[in-house]
Amino acid sequence: MAILEVEDLKIYFPIKAGIFNRTVDHIKAVDGVSFAIEEGKTYGLVGESGSGKTTTGRGIIGLEHITAGSVKFNGKDITNKKKKTKAISRDIQMIFQDPYSSLNPRKRVRDIIAEPLRNYENLTKQEEKKRVQELLELVGLSPESILKYPHEFSGGQRQRIGIARAIALKPKLIIADEPVSALDVSVQAQVLNFMQDIQKELGLTYLFISHDLGIVKHMCDDIAIMYKGRYVEQGTKEEIFNHPQHIYTKRLVSAIPDIDPSNREKLFQFRQEVQEEYDESYNEYFDSEGLAYSLKPISETHLVALPEKG
Amino acid sequence: MGDKLLEIKNLITSFRIGDHYYAAVDNVSLTVNKNEVLGIVGESGSGKSALAFSVMGLHTKAKIEGSILFNGKDIVSLPKSELNGLRGDDMSMIFQDPLTALNPLMEIGAQISETLILHRPQMSLKERKDHVIELLNMVGIPRPEYVYEQFPHELSGGMRQRVIIAIAIANRPELLIADEPTTALDVTIQAQILDLVRKLKSEMGSGVILITHDLGVVAEMADRVAVMYAGQVVEIADVQTLFNNPKHPYTRSLLNSVPAEGQDKLHVIQGIVPALQNLPREGCRFAERIPWIESNTHEKDPVLHEISPGHFVRCTCYKHFYFPEEPKEAKVYGNTRG
Predict the structure, then answer these.
(1) What is the pLDDT of residues B105-130, one digit of tens each?
(2) How many CB atoms are located within 10 Å of the residue A174 CB?
(3) Nearest Cβ partner for B216 among A190, A251, A259
(4) What is the tally of structural domains in chain B?
(5) Same domain, yes or no, for B176 and B133?
(6) CATH code assigned to A2-228
(7) In A121, B188, B237, B260, which residue has its Cα 20 to 30 A from B307's Cα atom?
(8) Tens digits of per-residue pLDDT, A46-102?
(9) Nearest-CA distance B40 → chain A (Å)
(10) What residues contact B208, with CB distance under 8 A and at least 6 apart?
(11) Residues of A with CB below 8 A from B263's CB?
(12) Interface contact flag, B215 A259, Cβ < 8 Å
C-alpha cells in the first residue's frame, strides 16, 4: 500500500501590491502534482532550482500552506492540519539541506537530538541520555559527543546529527531535501550509504529531493522530474534514465557529466543534438505559457507530460 | 608539451594560527601550458583554492615562499602596482559564488566596464560599451543591451555566473583561473558554462586552471589533472590516465566514492581531512586514512615518482594499496576501474 499519496497538490504564493496590499496574482510554485510512494521505497523528486521540488516537500510535512489538493499519509488525510494528530507528525520527519544552518549552534548535541524525544515521549533523564547515545552510535558518532556543540563537527558529521534527530522518533517517512549537496564527495558517499543502511534497518520510506541526477540514480527506485511547478515525467529509474520521453528530461539527462574522459566527444555531440531538438521542439512539449502539459501514461509506471493528440 | 605559461615552483603558502605558520599549500610545483586546461581536484581543505589565490596574489596575510613564474617572470615578489597591471588583464579569475562576487549596487554594464577602464584607459566611452555588449553576447546572455543596465539581483544564478565570466575574459587573459565555476549551478546551466569555458580556451588559446571537487566536470574539461590532498599534489597525469589508471590511494578512493553504474555501496574514505594545524607533516599524509595498509609501505619522506611519462604519484604506498572491501589478491594487477 502507498504510504504517502499526494493528489493534485497546489501551493500558490500570493503576490501583493497596491496601497491595500491586495493580492494581485499568484506564483504557482507547485501546480497540480500527484504521486504516491510505496512503503520502503525511495522516491526521487528532481528539478532545477525554482522548479518547486522543495516547496512540494515542505507542503507535505506542513511547512507551507497547501492551496488545493490533498496529502494522505497511510490513508489518512493530513492536508493543512494545523494540529496533526501526534502520531502523524512523529511519523514524518525531514532532513534539511544545509548541515551548517539546520543545527542550533548554541545547543549541545544531546539537546538537539533529544528535542523531538522531549516533545513526544516522557523519558527520564537517564533514559533520554541512553536513547541519544544509541542514536549517535547508530549514525556512527561516538556516544561521548553528546556534550559537544555543532561547530566541533565536520560537515558530514553534522549531517549525521541531523539524521539522528530525524530518526529519533522512528519515523516511517523521511523527506530528505538535498541531504548531501553541501558535502564533499567522500562525505557524500558516507551519508548516502548510511541512509541506505538505516532504510533497510528501520524500513524507512524516503522522499528524496535533489538536483543531482547522479545521486538520484544511485538512490531512488522511482523518479519524477519537475519543471515550473509541474511534473514533466515520472517513471522508474530505468525508464527515466534509459528511455526518457520528454525533451526536458532528455536535456537534463544529457547534461550529467560523465566520469569517463573517453566519452567526452560523444557526450558533447549528443548534448548538442539534444539542445537542438530542445530548441526546435520546445513549443510542442510546452504550452503557450511555457508550462508542461498534464501527464499521460505510456506504460503502467511511466507517465509523460505530452499534449493532447489532434 | 606546449609553451609554458605558468610555472609554479616549490610554492609554500602558510597561514598564521596563534604563533605558528601552517602551510596550506606545501611545496607544490605545477605547470600550465598555453591552450591547456589543468584540473585541480581535492576535497575541501586540500589547499586547492589557497593555491589559486596565491597565484592571483589575493592572500593578504599569508606567507608565500617559492616562485610563480608567469610567462617566465616571477610574480610572487612583484610589487602590488605591477601585479595589479597583470590581474584582470593577463590573468583573471572566475569566482565560485556568483551571488557574492558581484556588487549588488552596480549595474552589470558598469561592473564589466570597470576592468576595461583600469586596463585600457585609452578606450572611448562608446568603444567600451560596444565591447561590453560584445562580451555579454559572447557568454551567451540574451538581450545584452537590456542586461547592460540591469542589477545583479535581476538575473538568475546562471546569468550572474556568465557576467562573472564576462568580467574575467574582458581583457582576453592568457591565464584563466576558474575556482569551482559551476558548483552553485544546475546541471543544464553547468553544461552551458563549461561549454563556454571550453570555447573561450580554444578561441583565445589561454591556459585554464579549473579547480573543482566534481570529478565529472574534470573528466569532461581537463587535459591534465592534479589531485591535491592536505596541501600536496599526490598525483598528476593526463586526464585519460588519471581516470582509467589512477594510482594514488587518494585518487582511487575519490573515484570510488562517486556513484557509478551498477555500484551498490559507495566507497567511504575513513576519517576526515585534518584541519590545517593538525596536518601530519611527516611521512605519507594520507596514511592515517588508510590504516589497513601496512605502515612500512609508505615512504619516510614521500616524493613524487614519475611512473610513466607525465604520470607522477607521491609515496610508494600505491603499490600496495587495495580497498578493504575487495579481495587482497586483486590489488597486484592494479587496474581499479575495469
Answers:
(1) 999 999 999 999 999 999 999 999 99
(2) 25
(3) A259
(4) 2
(5) yes
(6) 3.40.50.300
(7) B260
(8) 988 888 898 999 999 888 899 999 999 988 888 877 666 666 788 999 998 877 788
(9) 15
(10) B32, B36, B37, B38, B175, B176, B177, B178, B197, B201
(11) 218
(12) yes
